[in-house]
Description:
Elements: H1 3-25, H2 28-45, H3 55-81
Helix pairs in contact: 1-2, 1-3, 2-3
Amino acid sequence: MKRAYCEQLWAENCNDIYYYLIAMTRQRADAEDLLQNVAVKAFKGYRRLRNPASFKGWLVKIAKNATYDYYRELRKQKLHLE
């Protein structure tokens, strides 16, 4: 997949991913940070995506994993503070 095509698919789907992240975190600021992380991961890994038709599902999976990582890190930080 070409980078320009990836950028087009990102532009078409980034709002949905953003709202998904808001639903997962319930915080706009956290969702915005995670959206940036998802964008970086997507643009680094887009060449591995074999089927462009599954781009949105792939982005959701990246977003879900980024959210889990975010909550794991929060839990670690909370344990270190106690």
